Amino acid sequence: MIRTRQGKVTAIKASRPGITEIMVEIPGEGIQKAYNYDLLTGSVEEGHTVILNTTAVAKKLGTGGAHFVMANVSAPTRDAREAGHIMKLRYSPCQVKVLAAEEQDSPHSAAIKNTESLAGTPVVVGALHSMLAPAAAGIKAATAGRARVVYVMTDGAALPLMLSNLAHNLRESGLIDAMITCGHAFGGDWETVNIYTALLTAKAVARADVIVVAMGPGIVGTASRFGFTGVEQGEIINAVNILGGRPVAIPRISFADPRERHRGISHHTVTALGKIALTTCTVVLPELPDADQTGLLREQIARAWPEDKHRVVAADGGPALEELERRGIEVTSMGRGPADDPAFFLAAGAAGIYAAGLALPGE
Question: Known InterPro entries for this protein (predicted)?
Answer without folding.
Answer: DUF3866 (IPR024479)
